[in-house]
Amino acid sequence: MSSTKHKRQRRNHRGKTANTKTRILEIARDLLVAGGIQSLSMRAVAAKVGISATAIYHYFDSKQDLVDRVVEMGIRRLHEYLQQAITSQPAGSLEKLLALAEAYIRFAYENQQYFQVIYRIRSDALGRFENLPVHSGYDLMRQCVGECIENGVFRSGDPAVISTYLWSIIHGLVTLTMTCSLHGGEPYGSGDQLETQMHLLRAFAPYISRGLQVQDTDKYYSDEDELTPISIHAQIR
């Protein structure tokens, strides 16, 4: 048999192996979303993929290993969304943070199964909050917050606390709009779930950057029955 034929066969084998592994991960993801970790078994996944119950162990060592790999796949996809969104944004700007938040929302909307797996399935891949994997997005949030502090956009503070605060707002918005219908005009927008989430995020931005507490120097005027700040003492700046 020629060397060329051997190489072609090896490439075909690697491709088939990669496709099977991807299929296993996708089936496991769907089962996790549908019934939680209790509904997942190596035998059930193997049956849906079309391989034997023993063959699946050639790809993953155990059920926990499979769960961890599914979670990590979702986390890496999330990181791709976030990284792409902020690449062209200026460092130390609120625009960069807003782009990061919008990418997080878009990921959750376009990858709802992975979003649920990442945050609803207990996995050794997550562990303690401060030990989140590098691709979880938390590292990018910390980076953006640190840049804003250095650039004087945010007042001095603990980047970890500020990052957790901002992430909690964004994540809370996503989970709330996933479970509750907030449609019906202002202030929620009149479009679909994604439009509602983006609309509310932009509505939140002034409160995030300026704070909520009214200062003695704050003055307001009525513009078409809406209170608009003329001068506000920034709470984060």
In words, what does this structure look like?
By secondary structure, the chain is mainly α. The protein is built from eight helices and two strands; from the N terminus they run H-H-H-H-H-H-H-H-E-E. The protein has helices at residues 3-35, 42-49, 63-86, 94-110, 112-120, 138-150, 159-179, 193-210; strands spanning 219-223, 226-231. Strands 1-2 form a two-stranded antiparallel sheet. The protein is elongated. It starts with a helix and ends in a 6-residue tail after the last strand.
Backbone CA Rg: 23 Å
Distance between the termini: 71 Å
Q: How many helices does DSSP assign?
A: 8
Largest sheet: 2 strands, antiparallel
What structural class is derived from the secondary structure elements? mainly alpha
Shape, per Cα inertia axes: elongated
Average predicted local confidence, pLDDT: 80
What portion of the residues fall into strands of 2 or more residues? under 5%
**Overall helicity:** 55-70%
